[in-house]
Predict the structure.
Amino acid sequence: MRSVQLSASYDTIIVGAGSSGAALASRLSEDRSHSILLLEAGPDYRAAEAPWEMRIPNPGPIILGSPRYQWPNLNAYRTDYQRPTVYWRGRGLGGSSIINGQIAIRPPLEDFDIWAAGGCSGWSAGDVLPAFIKLEDDEAFGNRPYHGRGGPVPIYRAPREEWGAVDRALAEAAVAHGYGWCDDHNAPDGTGASPYAINSRNHIRVSTNDAYLEPARDRANLSIVGDAIVDRVEFSGSRAVAVRVKIGGEWRRIEGSEIIISAGAIHSPAILMRSGVGPSGELRALGVPVRADSPVGRNLLDHPQVSIQLDLKAGARAAAVDARHTNCCVRYTSGLAGTGTNDMIFIAFNLLGAHKNQLRFGHIWASVYQSFSRGHLTITSTDPEAAPRIHFRMLSDPRDMVRMRDAIRRLSDLTSHPAIREIANAVHLGRTLDSSENESDARPFAAPTDQWTLEHCFDVQHAAGTCRMGAADDRNAVVDPQCRVIGVQGLRVIDASIVPDMVRANTHLTAVMIGEHMAAKIRTSGAGAGIV
């Protein structure tokens, strides 16, 4: 832990230095008269100190081999028919942006018009587009009016000659089957097969620590403290006034004029519940005094997926575990269950994981990106280092299951194309990162039953929604459109946990946008000095 001289109080305390929190801290600290304390549960490190595994294009080695940079003992039920298995969440400056797949794609902008229509005023497509533009440094399309150039987050698309065999085969098969080709999925009309936009520069990961915090390090008004475990927010009456945090093994109380929780969709609700903001029955059962009876943890979202495994021919296998794991996706519109555009996606994987024997296998994932199933999260203890109980209830909404059935049928059609047959000795159903390495775990690819799908579907670590945003009088909302926690004062939640309805994209770029958008709102309103 770095030595930081802490004050007794700050204008703003931000808990969590992930995709949203890092952007928020950087932007708010641009006002040099405003003091910011950024607390992160994981290690504080300079960008130049990041380990090899955190820099390479394939996130598998750091996910599977570096427990220091992820939350320990965190497991989740995906469906009612599965045992709980590991759920990776980044822990360290940059949060999950230090362990994710670096995917930088936007949702269809209509997602945000849905948010606004549901009571989230100020979050329409027109409202949030400036934040998406501001965060970007789009190498290929930065001069287009809906893109940005010169922002903190690089947007890069690997040229086709750098793609893996599964990338190329999926793109060829998809175009042949009528899905179309798209150079830029972040364009308003982007659909079909496309190179993934990723937050990478010179083949090196750029986390939000690299993009936002490293350039802000020398600001005297920004204090960053790692290995800081926040237990709870403390109140005076109904106003949040301090955090209780363990730093260097010592519990401390640090006051803030405003406190912002940006610990992500798993740990932000846990902190709120330990602070007395949550479902009253659950809090009382743990002996936690209730500050506000709130549906914290009740809107847990993620993207359900199924996988097909390709037993790759020798010439199609990845060269090394640090090769780029995915470069191509296929976004498409199912036309089912009353859903919108680009509600589904196929994702190519040239390898999966961190071990040499995994280079033999490729994968194609099918995912429901406009997902409606909702799960729940709760704490089981007041111990801040105890993992919450997580239950996603994936595919419990019939609208999700009907489209997953259709996606598996479409995958069957795609795998019959010569481009895929030329690279694979065999095609099997369903293996994931935590599967054993025995080939007998896979089964021949045929249309599975719904029961099999419920037993084998998985997620892609896109947790959202557990501190749902809505109108101030919405009984299902935890925060209002200014991200203020309903029922108390001086406390906000700003991260992916505020998402009211699931976005049709990987969640990282949306989480960064949330930090950018709210920083602009706070600075414009003057609320950063505690005026809430």
Summary: Residues 9-51+207-299+464-529 form a domain with the FAD/NAD(P)-binding domain fold (CATH 3.50.50.60). The first helix runs from residue 19 to 28.
